[in-house]
Amino acid sequence: MVEILVGAYLFFQVLGVISSVHAILSTRTPQGAIAWAISLITIPIISVPAYWVLGRSKFDGYVNTWRDIPRDIEQEMETIIQGMLPYAVENSINFPEYEAATRLARSPLLRGNNVQLLVDGRATYDSIHRGIEKAKSYILFQFYILRPDESGNRFKVQLIQKAGEGIAVYVLYDEFGSSELDEEWIGDLKLAGVKIVPFNTQQGPNNRFQLNFRNHRKIVVVDGKSSWIGGLNIGNDYLGEDKKLSPWRDTHMRIDGPSSIIAQSIFSLDWYYADNELIKGLIWMPDEAGINLSDARNKNKKEVMVLSAGPADNLETASLFFTNALNLARKRIWIATPYFIPDESTLASLKLALMKGLDVRIITPSLNDNWFVRHAANLYLSELNQLGAKIYFFEKGFMHQKVMLIDDSFSMIGTVNFDNRSFRLNFEVAGVVVDKKFARQVETMLLDDLANSTEKTDYNLANESFWERLKTRASDLLAPVL
After folding, report:
1. What is the mean pLDDT of the chain?
2. What residues act catalytically?
3. Which segments of 85-217 does DSSP mark as H helices, in order?
4. Residue 125 confidence class, pLDDT cut points 50, 70, 90
5. Pseudo-torsion of CA 57, 62, 68, 73, nearest 10°?
6. 13 versus 204: which is more confidently predicted?
7. In a domain? residue 233
8. Are residues 131 and 257 in the same domain?
9. How many domains does the chain have?
């Protein structure tokens, strides 16, 4: 028995050394590489399984899917890009770091969009429902969480009805976030002709034990001209019916115009990875989608950029985009997020903004669905408050929105939380609107949230109790995987 235990320990020790080399070569941050290398060598029995399940931050499976894309598809993509050029903003006077942003988003701001701000679940679900009802050709429907409850069934019935009318319906969900879905619920959709697949981050031999990646995107596209992006998933809890997290505060947005085609392209890439087939019959030319080129010059229309980010990107797109956006601020930075655990670059940008005397406000929920995140956030909130940031804890239920307002014209609404998971481990999407009128709407919304929040003044973690400091520091150690 002793020989077996010794042999097992030596086996894990060898795996620990091999894994530590892999961690040093592949982990994105030096801190993460050091932490994994030390733990893999010192406690290999625990750390080796944890590393191969949670340790990777690069999702190669998604990249490999597109590596051998046929040439005819590449040519079609080039044609689509050419068709979008008349709508592209070459240089934005309200976006000083515009070139870097377009390279990160892999798409420019596009003119000629109508944008509607959707506050909370009822308004969002009703807007999506009305949009789906008007579908003439196809519906793309993607959510991280899709629950088989009354809210989920509402859309299930509608999608089945539209499929019965001959509309092509595609449903994509994250298998981890939507774990409540059963075979019968999914089978009803398939029987009606709806194509529904899980994103399945574990497909492929190299990803079989990789549980740490999530497709956190929420995208709905109708006929290539209307799209919905934001913080809401599909479930009764997002209508405030969860007794522990009620009422639920969230924000979504509707986009009508050429930027919906960019949202469609993001869905299409995810679908190709999940199903190994391209969706045929989608409308890629704005004029074919009923989008008028004259709208590109209409001053009442909005300039919109749709950002796609994820662990398959060559760069840390979300983190870099946020850092870039924060650095362009000249007057204010208002952030509303349920999970505030900034990385080094975004934290540095916020500190510099405070050194320049900018109005920095951070709204985060007092009530949180993640105990570790709630306590880890205190470390950063305390540090920024000492430098002059205004910290607000939302008191009217659980605030789940992901919103950023910079100066007088930059608004960002999407799925990206202010934490390592969104910056490096999740597939995310966000809409950026550069427009003063829309920014005023977002400002009014956030002022209402501030009215339902308590400001934490003179917040210094050093003055908190020993146990509070211990909980905060210990929780922060888990920040890379929270």
Report:
1. 85
2. 216, 218, 223, 400, 402, 407
3. 98-105, 120-133, 150-164, 183-191
4. very high
5. -130
6. 13
7. yes
8. yes
9. 3
